[in-house]
Amino acid sequence: MATFNAIAVAGPGVAASADEPALPEAVVEQPRAFGYVLGDVITQRVLLEINGAHFEPKLPATQRVGIWLDRRATHIESGADGRRWLVVDYQLINAPRLLTTIAVPPLLLVSKQGDKRMLVPERRISVSPLTPHTTFDVDGLGALRPDRQATPIATAPIKRQLWLCVIALAATLAAWGGWIAWRNRLAALNQPFARAWHEIQKVDAASPQAWQTLHRAFDRTAGRVMHTDTLPQLFDHAPHLRPLRQQIEEFFAASSARFFGTGAPDAKVSIGQLCEQLRQVERQHEK
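and the corresponding structure tokens:
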């Protein structure tokens, strides 16, 4: 950081032009004149008084000043004696190849009312290079140093955590798959038309045994023995079967004709197809 010397700038004022009166120079605590490198902050402290009278300036804008300096945000602070100072910080944003003298430029301060002005004089300082010029010619150093290698990261804990996450995910998926398979198996064992469908696959679909198997599935669904006259009670008890009402009525009519009539099966009724449709409707209702 910069150190300061309190300097009361004396001497004649500075005139903006031949027709304008000379500007009073400010009382400034200037920074030291030497020992700066790239990135250093150079601070001027300006006493906010003109001929003993209070001076309230407009704060200078934050901006780049030439090729060397960048003026940062300014602020006002009070000293221990109650006097007010404007603090102006400049940051060195360029580095010379050789020791160089630069100027902190003069700064014109204008009061908020615009009726008073005060000049902060120029301050010359020396700036040093970051690396002595002679090192650029030494074999093996070069103008730039290579990038420093990044510190290796321990990947073993990360891999271990990743594997644990993968195992947990696989276990979760397996549990879900097992539950779905168990649920479907349980449904196949307990739902009337699912059980009937599995039994019908083992026999001839046109045999009396297949027809009786489907009748027992209707009985278990309705909770009572079903025949043609009691079909309305089946649809009241299991309304999800109503979309297949026509096929069910045709099955019961064909069953009555087969077992209590001519005894010949109705070719228009497919036991396997009807049982499959009933199983699908039953499964959708169960979900």
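(Above: one complete record from the training split.) The helical segments are 156-190, 192-200, 208-222, 231-237, 245-260, 271-286.
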